[in-house]
Amino acid sequence: MSALPPPTPSEIAGIRRRYFFMMSSVFLIDAAMTVLYCVVADAWRVMPRNLISGALVLLVVNLLLARTVFAPVDRFLHGQNSFDDIQRPLTQLPIISARNIGLLMLPLWAFRIYAPWFLPAESDAFPWPPLADGIATIIIVTLFFFTYTYFLASDYLAKLCVFLFRHFGRNLELYYGRYASKLGVALLVIAVAPLAAILIDIHSYDGDKLRTEVMVDVVDSLLAMAVAIFFVIRSLLRPVNLLTGGMAKVADGDLTMRVPVTSNDEIGALTSAFNRMVEGLRDRERIRETFGKYVSESVATALIQQTGDSNRIQAEARDATVLFTDIDGFTGIAERLPADTLVAAVNEYLELILEPIQRNGGVVNNFIGDGLLVSFNLPLANEDHANAAVAAAVEIDRLVTGRTFAGGVALGTRIGINTGLVIGGTVGAGDRLSYTLLGDPVNTAARLQELNKTHGTRILVSDATRQRCGERFIFNSIGTVTVRGRAEPAVIYSCGERAAVVAA
Questions:
Q1: Could you tell me the residue range of the domain that residue 163 belongs to?
Q2: Average confidence (pLDDT) over 96-107
Q3: Which residues face 323 on adjacent strands?
Q4: Does residue 501 register a pLDDT over 50?
Q5: For the chain, what is the domain count?
Q6: If you placed Cys at 246, which of 22, 259, 294, 368 could pair as Cys (CB 3.0 to 4.6 Å)?
Q7: Are residues 201 and 349 in the same domain?
């Protein structure tokens, strides 16, 4: 991943300020409901008292609690906490914020409804409501503000998570919420609570008082429902929209896409799983672009760890063994066979010889015509690379000897093997990358493969490779030969597996 832009002090202040403004919006909704009540019930006398009590509780006390809730996130934004330290409070931000509002609303509305008990001067103008209506009002109002705050804080959490993802590259990994529970609470508040309030009014009042109370409940319920529906829908749909947008980009081929995890429920877990899936696709695509499809899963995993986020394997020089293969007499075979039969035969041949290459830890670096360039110990570490390369060559020879492929054609194999200091690294520009091997051992292995035609052999091995092999194989000296491209002559050997030679 490219370097992420650190947040500026003004951006940190802005995301922090947004949380406190969100929490103070509870007072604005409460004040609006108070004014509506006073208008409908003609209760102007209680409005100053209700507004002042609301300001003290929902601005002063509420914002002090909000400061405590946001403190861990604030410390992280200023570099004083690690992300792991804030995962739990961050994930629980909506429920803790809503809990605090609920705990504040219970005593606030109990005071408002039963103020005549504290203020005897108001008892004549505003008598105590019936017990059922008073308790129901306190519970319903508290439940509404709890739900409003929860979904409002969930919406804020989504924005905060996008902010953290954009500047720190971190996503939520803890999921305490349940999507079904959120929907259930939203349905309870939007649909059931207003109806329950009206039914309790019908049970508690009659005449003009009933009409007034029902009117108050209807007006307050309409306001509450409008606000709740807006934030519930936005909170529930925001993470879904982000996820579907990410899916659309991946479908268009953008495998660099990562979606910020913005919810603490099943949608958040699904988004995290989506990011892991895209990362896996990106890793496979990276390996496919560099090495093609012909590396095993274990090799691919090791290569992914080496490439990191740069998509390039760091260049290095390492003692390695290089193996070249080529199909004997391929030009004549290609002239005789129809194109589709030829391709089928070559594919069958490659499928056969790739298995021992992969099993012995070889990495196919390139296809050169009908041949393969394979490396051992580079880029994938293999201390016994010389033995591994010879073992793969001997098994390939055994598998193809006497076998016919599509069209009844025999595809004999010539193999050259050499060991020495090899340079390997990713070369190319833009999206056109390839892992390349450089050095004299590579060229010598290619020449040894060609010398099989001269000496009537199927596997030729350099002296450097022979010296690194153990007792498993028998090497027969061909002699000293001049290898094209090298000033000094080289000693070369044919080889076979000792058990096979003894059996023969």
A1: 9-251
A2: 92
A3: 374, 417
A4: no
A5: 2
A6: 259
A7: no
